[in-house]
Amino acid sequence: MIKGYAPSRFGPLHYVEHGDGVPVLLLHQTPRSSDEYRDVLPLVGSSARAIAMDTLGFGASARTDEPFSIELFADAVDDLLDALSIDRPVIVGHHTGGVIALEVAARHPDRVRGLVLSGVPYVDAARRDRVSLAPPIDHVEVHDDGSHLAALWARRADFYPPGRPDLVNRFVADALRVIDRVEEGHQAVNRYRMEERITSVTAQALVVCGELDSYSLPDIPRFLEHLDGARTAIIESTGVPAVDHRPEEFGRLVSEFVAEIAGAARSRP
């Protein structure tokens, strides 16, 4: 396992890397970090070059005073790919990471080899209107007595399976690093004009979702409508935390998709 920092126009971007072969870039949800892929990375890295980055402003990557947006996050992804001389990656994104991945694929149809969208909501005008009045997802008021730690835990605990406080611990640890801007990643997703950008995506796509992810599961038909040739995979008995709750299944789906794309490329004349 290699840990490093790549230079970017914003400052250093933190990433973790494992394995060799077809490059696979893994992008996390808000407000996580590359730690979300801790158990997935060696699985995908057993047959590919798996790289999990911390999104700009999250984890150990550079902070920025610029307002968070999907476009800004994608700028940082572009910089990381350039700095590491990565060409034609498969990009895997979970929730916010999936929206970033879609934007990168829309910008660079010839640069992105494949796209795995995990638990990604379809963001259009109707969704933007619907969520504009919704309560915050992760924002908590910071208090001197530390009670905000329990509040942050309570906001997410029900998404995780019983008996797995270790997974909630990892979530809270990541969220605390960006506690002052923890909600901005969600807001960036909900401002994104996906319905306009998805028409530029040409990469072969796999749409993955946990069967208990009520936020994103209903949107799968929308992606199939807009992504030519896309197929789906449902991960049983999990929801929003599919990546770290079911790493073996998630890693298997990604590895099989990467192998399929690589095999198709080799068979072309």
Describe the overall structure.
By secondary structure, the chain is an alpha/beta fold. It has 11 helices and 8 strands. The chain has helices at residues 41-44, 70-83, 96-107, 125-131, 147-157, 165-177, 184-191, 194-197, 220-226, 242-245, 247-267, and strands at 2-6, 13-18, 23-27, 49-53, 90-94, 114-118, 204-210, 231-235. An 8-stranded mixed sheet has the order 1-2-4-3-5-6-7-8, with helices on both faces. Helix 2 (70-83) packs across helix 3 (96-107) and helix 5 (147-157) crosses helix 6 (165-177). The longest helix has 21 residues, at 247-267. The protein is globular, with a radius of gyration of 17 Å. The chain starts with a strand and ends with a helix. The model has no long low-confidence stretch (mean pLDDT 95).
Shape: globular
Please give the order of strands in the largest beta sheet.
1-2-4-3-5-6-7-8
- What amount of the residues lies in strands? 15-25%
Query: What is the C-alpha radius of gyration, as a whole number of Å?
Result: 17 Å
Number of helices: 11
N- and C-termini, Cα separation: 35 Å
SSE string, helix = H, strand = E?
A: EEEHEHEHEHHHHHEHEHH
Q: Give the assembly state of these chains.
A: single chain
* Mean pLDDT metric: 95
Q: Which range best describes the helical content: under 10%, 10-25%, 25-40%, 40-55%, 55-70% or over 70%?
A: 25-40%
Q: Which runs of at least 5 residues are low in confidence (pLDDT < 50)?
A: none
Sheet with the most strands? 8 strands, mixed
Count every beta strand, where a strand is a DSSP E run of 2 or more residues. 8
Q: What class would the helix/strand composition place it in?
A: alpha/beta
